[in-house]
Amino acid sequence: xxxxxQQQQEENVxxxxxxxxxxxxxxxxxxxxxxxxxxxxxxxxxxxxREAFEKEKLEFAIEKAGLSEFAEFINDQEEIxxxxxxxxxxxxxxxxxxxYKPENHKQTDEYSQxxxxxxxxxxxxxKLAGLFK
Length: 133
Hints:
By secondary structure, this protein is an all-alpha fold. It has helices at 2-32, 41-65, 77-98, 110-117, 120-131. The chain is rod-shaped, with a radius of gyration of 43 Å. The mean pLDDT is 83.
């Protein structure tokens, strides 16, 4: 009788374990569709070659654009164009800041020249000439 009871317990355990096992297998099978494909050695090498080529191409474009100093910050072609625009703005600002800015240089018109000389006739003439233009 003990053997019979023990056999029934094992069958119950197996039935429960089998049901759980089947549920886990079904869940695993469902999740397998999302598993990425494993690449062959040839595909991995080809992918590495493409990545190396893209990196070299980007480095060449950076050098061609004259942005070698900024190479560590540039990751793609769009960033090269953005950096070129930024460098152009900086260069323009530097040129403006370093450009000659005359001090005490005023544009003098005819009227002011006559006023400095004290020539009233010339002052009146320049005003009248301005009216008839």
